[in-house]
Every structure is written in structure tokens, then in C-alpha cells.
Amino acid sequence: MSNRYTDIHERLQYIGREIVDVFHYIILFLIGLVVIWTAGKEFLIIIYKGSAELKDILMLFIYLELLAMIGIYFKTHRLPVQFLIFIAITALSRHLVVDVQAVSDYFHLWLLATIAIAIMALSASIVILTWTARMFGRPEDYLDDHHASHKAGTYSMDDNTKRRRE
């Protein structure tokens, strides 16, 4: 009875993982199409104007980073948080360069300080994420190992710790 339950459980786990993967691919493909469409529209506006301003170029960089993040997921099946942080830094930099000029003088100083602090905090988070990934590994690096060893009943914390330090 227990063996039959385990077989059904494993099949359902497999089906569930496959369904999630299919939905990931469909949604990422649609997001990629929307990003390409929007970047193309932005590019056509630049061509129509006859010149590109800094805000337009920074916006194209944001689109490029979004496409790179989607491409990395298709290649590695992982979605690195660092790319989201890079996108946020680029968006804040764009806001700092383009939109801050339009605010009042009193508010201007606080807005500049807040955006600068936010960029520094995001940059520090990238340093911390990179350092911890080098020292301890990423959780997704051990996900497949955990599933395989859990299935075999041989998983232990000592094995996981040894793999992280290698």
C-alpha cells in the first residue's frame, strides 16, 4: 500500500512540475513578445523624432536587460534575482537623470537622496547575493540533488554542506 502511494505521489509530482514548466515557458514567451513589441515601438518613436535622448537609450537598456533575463531562463531554467536588481538600478538611474529635473527645489533634494540611497542599497544587495552564492551556493543548485537523494533516502545535511564548500 505504501509503495503504491509513493508511485502515485511521484507521478503527480512529475506531472505538476511539467505543468509548471509549460506555464513558465508560455508566460515567458508572451512577456518576451511584449518586451520586443514595446522596444520596437520605442525604437520607431526614436526614428520618427530623428534623434535619441538619454531617457530613450536608458529605456532601451531596460528592455535589453528584460530580454537577457528571459533568455537566461530559457537557457538555464533559472531566473537570477540579480537581473531584476540590475533592472531596478537602471530604472532608478533613468528616473534620476530624466524625471528629477521637473520637481521643485525643496522636494528635489529629498528625491535625489532617496534615489541615491536606493541605488546604493540595491548595489549592496548584488554584492551580498554574489558573495553568498560563491560561499554557500544557490538554493536551486541543490534542488535536483535533493529530489534525487530524497527519492533514494540518502539525503543528509552533511552531504549538502560538503557540496557547498567545494
What does this structure look like?
The chain is an all-alpha fold and 166 residues long. The protein has one domain (2-165). It is built from 6 helices and no strands. It has helices at 2-49, 54-76, 81-99, 105-136, 143-152, 157-165. Helix 2 (54-76) packs antiparallel against helix 3 and helix 3 (81-99) runs antiparallel to helix 4 (105-136).
Largest sheet: none
**Rg over CA atoms:** 22 Å
Q: Would you tell me the structural class of the helices and strands?
A: mainly alpha
Question: What value does the average pLDDT take?
Answer: 80
Q: In percent, how much strand structure appears in the residues?
A: under 5%
Annotation field: number of helices: 6
Query: Separation of termini?
Result: 41 Å
Order of helices and strands: HHHHHH
Strand count: 0
Summarize the amount of helix as a percent range: over 70%
Q: How many separate domains?
A: 1
Shape: extended
**Unreliable runs, pLDDT <50, ≥5 residues?**
153-166
